[in-house]
Every structure is written in structure tokens, then in C-alpha cells.
Amino acid sequence: MLTLSEIRAVIVDDEPLARRGIRQLLARHPDVSVAGEYRNGREAIKASESLDCDLMFLDVQMPGLGGFDVVRRWSGRLPVTVFVTAYQEFAVRAFESSALDYLVKPVSQVRFDATMVRVRERIRLGESEALAVRLSALLDGEETGAGTEKKVRTLLVPTATGKISLDPAEIDWIEARDYYSCVHAGSRRYLVRESMRALERWLCRDAFARVHRGAIVRLAQVREIRTRATGMVLVLKTGTHIPVSRRKRDQLNRSLLKTHHSL
Questions:
Q1: CB 90 within 8 A of CB 60
Q2: Is the entire prediction scored with pTM above 0.70?
Q3: Which residues neighbour 83 within 8 Å (Cβ) at sequence distance 6 or greater?
Q4: pLDDT digit string, tens, across residues 223-240
């Protein structure tokens, strides 16, 4: 049987209100103590070098290093991890098929309590190591595309009046903006709090290509490829010029050939 304060938990989320919300939800679970709170992925990874905990509530979308990055770089034993995300479709696609726990914001007490039942059972059965292996395999699959369909049906983007669902076919290209990414869709621009790496993983690789650190391009939008003394440049149908890094040229050529673009 579990005893009071047997489960040591940490909360990793860049939003103070979200961290406080998890604490409030945990207030009904006296067998759990909060061993630490971290405002971003870097703080959590640094703490993991000496941290001993059983449970981690981890935000998927954080500026800089997101939840996936935290898991990949975690030092020592990975605790049972409950992912927290604002995107229902992403949570279902990434975790439900692998029996991993997730919570979608805003989190209800009923949903949280149900998750805690599963958490206790996994800790009681000593399944944290097995879960860590399964999670690593899932993330490897996200990175390589092995055995999974690498497509995102829609991308939720913020607007002045709320959020809208953007079909990837509407996207021309995506530009890095510090801790954000700027999605260019025709005459519209949307700032999303996602890293370029995360967006690259989510988008279908047959339709999109990362052409340098700061740009992802929808291949069907490429109208022309120009070679200059300074290197290769893509010209999109919108007239936008996007440079291609030297290390991305060969892969880009192969991707364009698959979409019947002539070089």
C-alpha cells in the first residue's frame, strides 16, 4: 500500500498559472509531495543531474527546449511522466496509442484524478523503467518516422479572437523567430509557440523540407531554384526568397525530385 508523501513529483511548465494549477489539483492527493518546480526545459534538465523523483508533470510546448527535449536529455532514471499539452489531437496521436499518460489544458479535477490512479498503479508495479523505454522508442519513432504516419492534420494557431485550425496545405513556409515560429500562409502570419524542430517533426516530410536552421518550406510552393555565388536560393510562388544551407542541399534536391520539381 502507498503511504503518505511516498510519491515525489516535479512540475515543468513555463506558465506560472499552469504550475499553480497542477499544485492545486495535487492538493487532493496527500500521498504526493512536490519536490520541485521548473520554469523551462533547461532548468529541469540541470536539476535532473541530482534530482530523485517518481513522477513528472511535463509541458510539451515550451520555448527553447520542449517536453520531448527534456525527456531525451534527462539524466539518470526517468520518472513516470505525465505530459501536459494544449493540443488534444497532438496528445492523442503521440501518447494514447502507447498507453502513456497525458493531460489536455485546461485540466479538470476528474481527469487529473483518473490519471493519478494510473500513476499510482505504475509506480506500485515498478513500471517506470519500462515506461521510459517505451517513451524513448516513441520519441525515436517521431524523429525517424519509423512505423508511424508522420502527418499533422491541422495546426492550431492563435489569432486576435482566439485560435483557428490551419491545414498544412495552407502553409507556404515557416520562419524561426527567437523562441517562436512564424507561420506564413498566403498574406497571413501566425506566431506559434513551437520550436522549428517540433514543427518539422509534426509536418509530413514528403510535403515539407527544412532548408536551413531558420526556415521550413512547403515543397509545392517552390517556383524556382537559383544558384548564386553565395549559395542556393529558393524562390516561392509568393515571390519570397529563402536561402538554402549547404548541408541541406542534397536532401532538398531529393525531396524536390519526389514532388516532380525539375532542377
A1: yes
A2: no
A3: 58, 59, 60, 67, 91, 94, 95, 100, 101, 102, 103
A4: 999 988 888 999 999 999
- DSSP string computed for 140-161: HHHHH-TTS----S-EEEEETT
7-12 and 55-59 strand pairing? parallel
Q: Is the pLDDT of residue 209 over 60?
A: yes
Instruction: Pull the grid cell for residue 166.
Output: 490551419
Residue 222, classed as helix, strand or coil, is strand
Q: Return d(Cα 88, Cα 219) in angstroms, integer.
A: 28
- Share the mean pLDDT of the chain: 81
Alpha-carbon torsion 90, 92, 94, 100, what sign? positive
| Phi-psi category of residue 5: left, alpha or beta, with phi > 0 → left and psi -120 to 50 → alpha | left
CA 108/CA 111 separation, integer angstroms: 5
User: What are the φ and ψ backbone dihedral angles of 159, each rounded to 5 degrees?
Assistant: -130, 180
